Amino acid sequence: MEINKRPEPLSWAEARRILRNVLESYLDHPPPTQRRDDSTKDSSWLSFLIRHDIDLYFGAFLFSIALLVLSLFSLLARLGHVSDSQLRPSATQGVYKSQLCASISLAIGACGSLWMVRRRRFLSLNDSVNAKRREVMRFLRVVKAFDENDGCDLTEKPHINGTSLTDIYRVCRKAGSAEQWNQIPSLLLVKGDFIALQCGDIAPADCVMLQNGLISDIQIKLGTRLSLQNMGLTKENVLSDLPKGRTTLQPGSTYLLTLCNRTHMFLVLDTPINEFINRPPVTTRPSQSSRQIKAVRQSLSILAIVLLVLTGGILLIRVDLSSNDLSLLLTIPLMAALSVLPTVGPAFLFFLEALATARILATVHPYASLTANQTKEEKTFTRSKLVLRYMVATCLSRLSLWRVADQIRRILAKIFPGLPPAWFNSRLIRIPPASLNLVEKLGVATAFALVDDELACEPHSIPQQLLIPSGQGLKLLDLCPKFADDSDDESTSSIRKKAAKSFDSDSESEDGSSVVFHSSLKRKILRRKIFRRASRKNASDDSTAEDSDSPFDVQFEEPTWWQFLPSLKCIGLASLLLDENRHEEDDTELINCCIKEESDDENVAHDKGLVEKRRALLVKTVCHERRSKQYHSLANCIGFSTSENAHGKNGDVTPFEERLRLHIVSSSLVSERMDLDEHERSSEQSKWWGLLRTDSTSIVVQDSRSKAYQLLTVGDPSVVVDLCHEAWQGEISTILPLRMGDRETILETAENWKLGDLDVAAFSYTPMPRSFEAMFGSNTESQIYLLNNPASGETQHMLSKSKSLSPEWSLMKNQIFLGLLASLVVPRSEIQSLLSTLSDAGVRFVYFSPRNMRRQKELASQMGIDVAWNCAISLRPLETGKEDKYRMTSNYADWDVNAKLPHGVEDVKKHLEEVDNVPLLVSLYTDVTKETTKEMVEVFQDYSDTVISVGLSHFPRNDGIFSAADISVGVDVLTDDQERSNEQIGSFSCPHILQPEIDFVSAIASHSCAFRVRGIPGIAQLTLVIDQGRASLEAAVNASVFFIFGFLTLSLFLLFSVCTPFTNIPYTPVLGVVLFLQIVLPGLGFTLAMSDGDSDTMKRVPPKNDQTVTFSRREGWKLYRNIVIKSVIPALLPQVLYLIVFGELMLEFEPSLTAEMCGGANTWVHIVRCDGLKSYTGPVRISSGVLVLVELVVCVTFASAGFLSRLDCLLNDPPWRRNRTWLLALSLMVIFSFVYCYYALQLRVTAALPWYYYVLAAVMPLICLTWVEFCKKSEIYMEKRAEKLRRLQFETRLGAWSPK
Hints:
This protein is of the alpha/beta class. The chain has 46 helices and 28 strands. Strands 7, 10, 11, 12, 14, 15, 16, 17, 18, 19, 20 and 21 form a 12-stranded mixed β-sheet that branches. A 7-stranded antiparallel β-sheet has the order 6-5-8-4-2-3-13, with helices on one face.
């Protein structure tokens, strides 16, 4: 780019056009399609066959085709065949027709499974890229609709919450003929934008500095943290450019940009979103469940080969190859193999995963990042309807059939015009990609990582301690939260009312004796209490209503606090006036400062003048005063109120009229802020980032009753103490000199509080004589900025001696010190409740904080994180031999000797390899960056943790963390509810940005996330999501195990059929087998997957995801053994019934044949051993096979009750209470079995069977269920034992258990 060229800001239309062109170019040039990585540690031939779906191609598909061919030729061979006395052609022909139909259905199912597996695998290879492309296409459709409406914005004006620390940047763009400064996310910036950056900011794109409106040669690369060095400056040069001495700056002075961490304008050289959307995707780690599925698939493939060989070999040995029933019996080996091959299994697992995913998304839906209108529409749907809609959407997403879905939706809308429009038009949340393995990973999550500091802290500080002068020295007053049920006694209430009546510094003065003021500060430990929000009271109750502006109500713990009311009233009034919003300009008017071009007849301004105006408007934006509500809480605690009362509409501040507001900026503190490391930045400084937070603010007010003037000052202790020469001892209303020892004590206390991340403010005041009234004049509600920049050789403490003070500076002299307030940023209530629930659930809470240990200690303690031994690890590398001055301190002498935890990620890895696992048991990581956070998440995964990461959804720098974590959740604060937006950091109305643009930023930046929740309150609901994830995974596993149980039972039943000692091999109808595989098992399995979790779901510690382990020690062997043992009884018992059924039916329906072939046989015992009936294929054999297969189906159906829960017996939790859907499915399947039996039987056998057959048929399903429950006891014992070991390891104190 040409140097010294003077660029112009883009218009909103031009910026949108550039952004649209970049996105369209991305769609026109898609990234190359990824190929499956076939490299694996398991190089066995069986793994190779499974990885390439050989069991699908040459197993299920080939065998189903073979069965189809066999059935077709068998039917053709029997057509037109004339029967003899032993065979009825009509019956046999119908059997072969049903066999052909079943074979066709089985072949279609195998083809469908093969297509699903191949398509799902192909699409899952590019899930990350496809997710970004879908969001881009959706956004471009919205932009196109916006352009078609001639740019008419039909959406509400969104509020933009955040600072440049949270990726919200100031940009200058044209709107019509005016230039405006707005706040927008970095992904909406485009090439050619003007942005404002300050020292400490991270460049959102490649940019170049603008100097006097011209492009300079100073370029900043994407991701570079700005400093004076890379801006070509030094701290000495910056400070030397400021006016010397104690001078007055005008509100629009450009020196204020220098004082605001050297804020400067830059030109964006590249569109940030272009680099973001072209980042290569990250390969996700497989879950243990996926490895177990592959292992089970390998075992079943081996079992299929064994069954095929074994069943076929036995059959060929026992059957005469010239027998006329060979075509009926040859299907048995094929069906035995197909029962355990992936014929219907892949389709079942596909829909099972879709169902489990739908259950999770239906839980997320009420808290998801949808618009308010969409959320209201979705409330009309019940949970069952939501689950159904999400299941359909998940299936369509997995197979990429959205076009087909749109056509079906239009057809249904025409067929059923009466259905609610929300059924067709309402928006669901985005379906997570298949490669994420949401169900498998969410159900076994072991670590919960909070990666953004803004999600952990309340937006405003809370008063904690107040240090005031007293007769016995400095008095420390503790403040604590006031709960809804707290009430003051009558005396305290009357005192509070007296405190708010008036403000007169002399009215309550008393003659006091001499006091000792120069005493040392009594050290007190800060109380670690959980602050709660004040309950919202009825606004109509004027007598008891509190100010809604106060986020928390606090009260003094000291019962005699009222004795200090004379000085506390001054502090309360100063707090209330400082936080009053009567002098704040409207956010929209302030942040959207505009430069209107002058017309030709008004002499259009030169370029240099426009640059100066642009810079002056930037000054106005950075000088915006952020409301610090801790002052409002303190004023309410003392007894002040802004609610309408007898004083007037504004309550107790009504009599006081603000005449002047003076802001002091100290060059020495500016110098410290420029040198401030990013990890040293306090919580309150982060909330003021991007704004000029002056070092002190003085307010001159006039009491309308007495016409007296008062000057009240609130600010940094080092500045305020320098302005004071006296101190007010409140309990005796005495003013004494503020000596040097007192100053040192106050400043030392303030410094210690600051190191603990407390926000410290000092209070002072002075009455003003009426002679200063002429200075105010008519300049009502004006603001003046004062700069304290001593010349070389001049100290900071020469205010009273300096003779070159500006008139405004002369107002600041001879003030009276009132007290020192320490405020603490407390954790959000959502985080506090979340942490305790996660601890019970065995999920380790991990907090990644950008601040150092000492600053983060108190906040971590308030959250409930252990801050004792081995409490935190700094991820900032520490040079060898150096000490970390920000390390946590301990009262124990051996802390600094023994507690030497690693510094930096590399040291953590080395410690884990050589020492112990203590770094993985720590819940607090400090001094982090986004890069070190990502590396630490990968370390957790390397040591078998399944990590859930939670962060801001619009933050593109979180993309690396989101992609690395197993499951990521984005928190959408940009589209949070309107009532909460006013509480956020730097919330401004942006009239030119569209709500779809905000939605697009959150969606594209969090494309790696499983889902997004709306607003920070949604974080507290993530425990419900984890609970549902565990319940869904457990139910899906139970359904899958039942499915394998059903497969294995059928295959063993077929094996037992050919191994029977009877002379006549039982016939197994192919149609019945196919119906069992394609209807009965899926019907029961799907309803099993709908089971809710038990009451202990969130009290169990999940297993680790060790990538080198498929099953834990002997777990696989126990799984296979238990399934086989459970399957033996249901497969064996129906064979016993075959004895009775075949014998009794032969005696009843084939008496002549029986007499001829079996001689004098008159009982079923003789019939089943008769060699003459070995080749009989008449209707009795067909009907007997149908009855036995139906009995098998009923036994399996009842046995499914034992798979509702793996860890509980049916007697403890009856199935009809836990899963009513399964109970309905069981009833339907039993009825379906009887209907099939009725139509498949070729004889009416009801009266022919003896009574004990019906007794056995009714008892056998119960026996099977009892057997399954009995076998489950060993599983319960082993699982509970393993869970106790996991709980022991999880709750082990840090350093007490070192596996190395």
